[in-house]
Amino acid sequence: MCGIVGYAGPRRVIPVVLEGLKRLEYRGYDSAGVVYLQDGKLIKYRCQGKLSNLEAIIDEAIMAPSHIGLGHTRWATHGAPTTENAHPHSDCTGDLVVVHNGIIENYHSLREELRAKGHRFTSETDTEVLAHLIEENLDGDLVAAIRKTLDLVEGSYAIGVLWAGMPDTLVAARNQSPLVLGIDENGQGSFMASDIPALLPFTKQVIFLEDREFALLTAGDCSVYSLLSGEKIEKKVTTIEWNAAMAEKAGFKHFMLKEIFEQPQAITNTISGRINPESGEVDIPEIGITDEDVRYIERIFLVACGTSWHAALVAKYWIEKYAGIPVEVDIASEFRYRRLIVNDRVLTVSISQSGETADTLAGIRLAKKLGSKVVTICNVVGSTMTREAHGTVYTHAGPEIGVASTKAFTAQLAALFLFTLFLGQRKGVISPEKSRELGQALIGIAEVIKEKLPVIQTQIQQLIESFYSCRDFLFIGRGLNFPIALEGALKLKEISYIHAEGYAAGELKHGPIALIDKEMPILALVPQDAVYQKVISNVEEIKARQGRLILIGTEGDQHLKTITDDIIYLPAVHEDMNPILYTIPAQLLAYAIATRRGCDVDQPRNLAKCVTVE
Ligand code: F6R
Question: Quick check: 368 and 385 in contact, CB under 8 A?
């Protein structure tokens, strides 16, 4: 998704803006631009492609003695990823520029009105309309013009505005698109960014802008106001625990690989302090629901997108099994547009790494409006979902930079298992013995993964030589591992561009089995669990049709060797922990195949880390 960085302060602006934009590269983008003010003039550079292309054309500007400016990385929505469509966008005079994330839904009619008034447009974007509309409304008072403009637009925006007529001030504003402000308490200036990692090299003191708020940023001040009333709002300053080093590769070739290897720590960080190692008793103080709420709940909706949705699918099995509460799992973009039977006896849980995904956010807003309590399982402190939900269960995975989610997913699973125990224990439906057993299983899984990770990586590396050039791939699993088959397929398709599908193993014979021939690779998850025999039968059906099987199963399972030579063995763990453990080879397989094919695994084509538009 698009990235915004803005700075006003004593440092040279371009290095600050570029450093910030680099920290946002992981979000995905296809063009970039910067603007700074020097000698009363706005100087703008834009180009298609990566930031390195931009750096190549700004050369001397890097050292420009300017102390205020904006930068943007664009992920195309309206108009192709060309230089003309790259941000910043200017008004007719060239004295005012805007960078924007989000979508202005009524841009078409606004543009026609502005054209009729003589405004000339040079791009196909919705953003350019903002620059011209502010110009149209500008009568010496920039703040008044911006407030009037934003009152006329429909849709979502996080914007940064710089006007030569107000040379010391950047204006930031948001509605339904994230924007965070940074303040350097050592007098090193004020910052704005669409995501926290952009600020980490400069400050950890941040202010989260809420919907319909705007901020005026100068070298020495960062004040926030209501867009509706114009009144000043006292904001809380939050200290971010992440540091800049956490968002670096630390010797790994890719962020994705580093994050795969960080999973044991991410899981441990997510559960530590929340579970009693002896009794398995769970306490999540920030969860925002009382024991009485838990007993009152009749149904749970789990709402999420993509990989986070797969975590929700696993959690359905756990919650129904151990807390005895019926669970519905919804893809957020579907949830928000169907007739919801939601009331105060429904608990809605959003699952999101970023806490900013537009559809998931819209889903919880809707559920809240219908009377549901809302809990969010989220990785980013202070993100919009955490601010809007009644309670939060943070996954302490640290910043996830690779576009393909890895450590956030397994941390979500750990948090959801904690959540399951919390519900079951508060409802009084899990016995103390079961609590102890499940708690210890959860606590132990990080160590198992830590020990096995390098071994699995080596085995996968050997195995992929005969699979990396295939065109299609199927993944199958059953029960708790069916969502892991979906996740394995998603990982592979998003970073290697191989067409891959995940199926519930038992579903195969209802259609997909027609795809099986001697060319088709099928990865089957076959731990020795309650449905082991059933999956083995499905695997035999594939073998009978000459499918090329890769099996991931339990150490010591000799039967697997009668089926194929391509086997990854994993230790026997508590059956409920299999989804966490079996995710690891699926991630490593996708990583190994994608790198073997020469793909850019950290920034796959067309993808964005955080989808803040519908
Ligand atoms: C896939 C991936 C996406 C995200 C999805 C939701 O690897 O990362 O499918 O899981 O866009 O994002 P969050 O969790 O931030 O709401």
Answer: no
The question of whether 493 is a catalytic residue gets the answer: no
CA 343/CA 351 separation, integer angstroms:
20
263-271 and 407-427 are packed helices; what angle lies between their axes, rounded to 10 degrees? 30
Quick check: CB of 412 below 6 Å from ligand 1? Answer: no
pLDDT digits (tens, 9 = 90+) for 227-270: 999 999 999 999 988 777 777 787 899 999 999 999 999 999 99
Strands 521-526 and 472-477: parallel
Determine whether the shortest distance from the Cβ of 308 to ligand 1 is under 6 A: yes
CA distance 223 to 219: 12
Regarding whether 124 and 56 lie in a shared domain, the answer is: yes
Q: 390: exposed, middle or buried (C-beta count within 10 Å: 0-12, 13-18, 19+)?
A: middle
Task: Looking at the structure, tell me whether residues 441 and 466 fall in a common domain.
Answer: no
Q: List the structure tokens of 98.
A: 């805007």
Residue with the two structure tokens 């999540």: 284
Looking at residue 497, its amino acid is Y
520-544 burial, b at 16+ Cβ within 10 Å, e below that, comes to bbbbbbbbbbebbeebbebbeebbe
CATH number at residue 23: 3.60.20.10
Its pTM stands at 0.80
CA–CA separation, 408 and 437 (whole Å): 25
**Helix spans in 46-141 (H):** 51-58, 107-116, 127-137
Contacts of 336 (CB under 8 A, 6+ apart): 359, 362, 363, 366
Q: Give the pLDDT confidence score for residue 260 in this predicted structure.
A: 97
Shared domain check, 150 and 133: yes
Distance CA 120, CA 115 (A): 6
Residue 79 and residue 103 in contact, taking contact as beta carbons nearer than 8 Å: no
**What is residue 28's predicted lDDT score, i.e. its pLDDT?**
72
Of all helices (H) and strands (E), which one includes residue 35? strand 31-38
- CATH number, residue 533: 3.40.50.10490
Q: What is the pLDDT of residue 381?
A: 84
Whether residue 336 sits in one domain with residue 356: yes
**Whether residues 232 and 377 fall in one domain:** no
192 neighbors 17 (Cβ within 8 angstroms): no
Tokens 């070298």 locate to 219
Greatest extent of the chain over all pairs of C-alpha atoms, in Å: 80
Of the residues 2, 47, 222, 305, only one is catalytic, namely 2
Q: Is the CB of 149 under 6 A from ligand 1?
A: no
List 316, 373, 407, 609, catalytic entry? 609
Q: Where are the alpha helices (DSSP H) in 138-230?
A: 142-152
**What is residue 524's DSSP assignment?**
E
